[in-house]
Amino acid sequence: MKTIQRLFMVLLMPLLAFSITACAEKYTEGNQYTKINETASAKAEVREYFSVYCGHCFKFEPIMHDIKKGLPESVKLERNHVDFLRGVSPTIQQMITKAVAVAEQLEDGDKYIGAVFNYIHLQRAAITTEKDLRNIFVLNGADGDQYDKLIKSFSVNSHAKSMKKNQDNMSKAGVLTGVPTVIVNGKYRINAGALDKSNPQEDYKNLINYLLTIK
Q1: Contact (Cβ atoms closer than 8 angstroms) between residue 121 and residue 58
Q2: CA dihedral for 29, 32, 38, 41, sign (positive or negative)
Q3: Which residues pair with 188 in a beta bridge?
Q4: Phi and psi dihedrals of 38, rounded to 5?
Q5: pTM of the model
Q6: Contact predicate 142/110, CB 8 Å
Q7: Digit-coded pLDDT (tens) for 64-78
Q8: Domains in the chain with CATH codes
């Protein structure tokens, strides 16, 4: 069996090399992506900066879920909620950042983030207190006691602070000017407006997978 697997990889390598070369010709720095850093992150990652109050982010949700499914096992999708959208209290937005950190510690965390999106964009309801967020989670299957413990936990608060720090650093560098913004390996920002408009979802996935292969 191992011999067959090695043979398969040997046969596959020329195809992979051809695919990478083809992508290098199709995707160029300054067009479909921008290099924002000289060094890549220590671990391979795809980081999405988003806000549940952003209508474009809401429409982008299905694409992000598809991208997540297609990532290599060694690559993690990091969801970084931001708190700079106008017209909404920064305090409320920071509360939601903590709730996102809670969701990521629960099974099927994307479901709870999606529920918050739906609450705002489909139900047209307002989030004014932490209780509103807790109710959204519980109504969608989360255990209330577990939510209460997590929202006060060191890990959730540390993660929320980390998201805020990432947001502030990228904003100060002029990299993060709106959402959704996707950055690969802390080094390459995707320029969504330059992707293939006939099939942007597939082009997005192909570009991400290409950027994950280059240093």
Answers
A1: yes
A2: negative
A3: 35, 184
A4: -80, -25
A5: 0.88
A6: no
A7: 999 999 999 999 999
A8: 26-211 (3.40.30.10)
